[in-house]
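Task card 7
Instruction: Convert sequence to C-alpha cells.
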Amino acid sequence: MKKVAVLGLGIMGRGIADNFLKHGYDVIVWNRSADRAAELVDKGARVAVSVADAVKDADMVFEVTANDESSRSVWLGAKGVMENSKPDAVLITCATLSVAWVDELAAACEKAGRTFFDMPMTGGRQGAESGQLILLAGGDESKLASISTELEVITAEVKYFGPAGSGMRFKLVLNALQAVHIAGFGEAMRLAHAMGLDEKKTGDALAERPGGVSTNIAWRDYQTEPNPINFSVEWIAKDLGYALANVDDDSNQVMRDTLKAYTEAIKRGESDEDWTAINRS
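Output:
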C-alpha cells in the first residue's frame, strides 16, 4: 500500500485522512494547529511536526489548505513539498485556489519533473466523511490509472477536465454558480414568507424541482438553525473572488452582486457561519 500524507485538516482534509485510515493505509498528517489531528491519531494516523516531515516518505501527497497564501507556503517554502517529497511521489492539491497560483504551481512541478494533479473537490462534509467525494481533475491523464485504487478510497467519481489547472478552473465556475444559487434561494424563501407560504412546504417543493443539486443543498442547509458548517461564508467569498479575477470588472454582474452580499455577511461577523447565513440576512 502507498504511504499517504494529508496536509491541512479542515473538514475535507480530516475526511480524506480518515477514509485512508479506514482502508488500512499508512497515513501521516500535518496541520498548523496540531490539535486538529487528535481524533485521527486515535485511529492510527501519525502527526508530522512539519510539512517536510510529513512528505519525506509519502508516495501520495494531498494538500487541502485554505487559500493561495497557505498553499504557497506548503508547496514552495524551504520545508515545503517541492523540496522535501520523494521525486516519484504523486502530488495533489485538493484545495480550491486561484487559477494564477495553480498555473504557477503546475509549471514548477513540470519543470522539476514531478507528477502533479489539481483535484479540487465537490461533495462537502458528507462526501468527505463518507468517502464519496467527486474530484475534478487536471493533469496528465495517462498517470491517473496508477493512482486509481487510492482515489477510489475517497471518491464516488473522478471527473477529468484536461491539463493541470483545468480541474481548478471548473471548480471555480461551479462554486460561482452555486454561490449565486444559494443567494437566490434565500431571496426566494423571503419572497415566499412575504406572501404567506408555509416555509417547509415551499422548501420541499423547490428542492423537488429540476433545479439541480444546488437547490437541494440550499434547502438542506437552510433548515437547520444554528447551521452546521458544511461550507463557510468566508470560503465561498474567497472562491467567488478567485473566480471573478478571471473576467473583466464590468462583466458577471450577478456574481459580483452575490460576492458583495457575502462580503457584507463577513462584515456582520458571519465569516464562520454556513454559507446559507446569507439567506437569513
